[in-house]
Amino acid sequence: MSSFSATAPSARSKWFAGTLVILYALITMIPLAWIMLTGFKSPADAISYPPKVFFEPTLEGYVNLFTTRTRQTDDFLAANPPQTWYEEIVRQYDMVIAGPSKFGERFLNSVIIGFGSTFLSIFLGTLAAYAFSRFKIPLADDLLFFILSTRMMPPIAVAIPIFLMYRQLGLSDTHLGMILLYTAVNISLAVWLLKGFIDEIPREYEEAALIDGYTRFQAFYKVVLPQAATGIASTAIFCLIFAWNEYAFAVLLTSGTAQTAPPFIPTIIGVGGLDWPAVAAGATIFLLPVMIFTVALRKHLLRGITFGAVRK
Amino acid sequence: MTETPLTHAARATPPSVARKIKGLSDRAIAWIFVGPTIFLLLAINIFPLIWTINLSFTNFRANRPGREVDYVGLRNYERILNDSDIWLNMQATAHFLFWTILLQVLIGFTLAYLINKKFKGNDLWTTIIVLPMMLSPAVVGNFWKFLYQPQIGLFNYIVAFFTGKDPSSFEMLGSVQLAPWSIVIVDTWMWTPFVMLICLAGLRSIPDYIYEAAEIDRASKLRQFFTITIPMVLPFLMLAVLFRGIENFKMFDLVVQLTGGGPGSTTELTSINLKREAFEKWRTGYASAYAIILFVTVFGLASIYVKALNKVKER
Q: What's the CATH class of domain B75-314?
């Protein structure tokens, strides 16, 4: 095409559009940047007015996030000088570290439940998607729509009977219970997305393999799976992010052993009210992996968020 | 297609050999592959739904498992539909839905239109803009609560800086007038990129030659916009509205963390109200009937909408 195309935007309109978009991007980043900054503030700086953009950074928020602290007598403090940098930070308030906080455990729960449910959703989802893509299944469209429609229920509505069911089965507040639940939530996404990806792989490859003496099953995992690897990986990241972010089920069905990070972070209390730097530090650690994954996913983002309805 | 050993083999092998395939029949494999998924969904989605329907006709309370359960017929449904508080919740939900969708469509489409001018570095900025929508809504709600604090919050400071008002003179989360808008602002911040991405896909799907033809016909830019751009993006835009509509009708986590439904019940969306009935007041039977009404509403509205969407697509 010639460079004098009648439809190409002029240099001036490009400049104008670029400025507005960059302006929006910068404004939209303010809340995120602010929360990350707050994680490095002292509690006094975090609640000062006017809000401080420049301040002396400290790791206090992060130390408070990962520890529990107790106040001690002067004699005790004098007899036990601080050994490490984090003890030193706590000492300015005449406190000592009593032990680790629950944040580590909750974060680990998020990891276990996130990865566990992602693995299951992808395992079941790939099998189902392959079958929907390649075989004649009676009422296939109805089944696919049924799988999708399970997403329309408000989580709280599903939570009532799940709560009762889990109480009966002893699955309340267990990792297994949450993994199964998140798998059921994510599987509709997995099936729909993976079916799209597998549909794009030409059938000829498997047919050739079948003729060469592969069984259907061998053709599936030696020919189709490697070809679908990118699609499977991006679907997995989507499932992981959804499980990672989920809050409604987590807050209703877990309270201790299997509680994930989202219901826990807002409850981090410091001396005299919410410990905002610690909350901000927790939010930063929790959100950062998702941001990295989002950047890695950017090419398949649209497809993932629309259940494969829009493909670029 | 490029020549690979597999495609070569495909052409070289006579069809009669192709039938001698070892292993299970395709039909059996299909059911083995689909079965577990269907089973899981039946166990964790459909069985609970049926149980909810059953519970909705009873006066069961989950905090008193030993008590005798009576079937009360349609009484729960009657009470919900005659409850004026529930209509207030519905109104709050409608306000939230209407304004979030309107703002997200306007801002999202504008952004997509601007990004589609393909200025230098537009990919990078698109990726940055998209970040908020992938984050955990509960954590987002929690840190916006910090930004909205009347004395110390950044939001009040910025508004005060531009309007000259006293930053402690208004409370975004504490005032009956402002709280419904505070949740609209956060949801719009978070989900505008979603609408933007879908609109962008729509804009990029319009082939250049249509505009070139319009240019030859000397159609004005404005006319091109209303007769080419808008109609071609409309199916995409409607899809975005469908997704946002369903998601925001179910809205729970973000708003619970931000306002908890308050002040009073000004931001008590239906899901939050449902959670109170089910898990705080423990009126399980009543809450089940409420859940069924909500589900039927979403499902009904979505089906009507999808029909309309398909009509637009066919044009």
A: mainly alpha
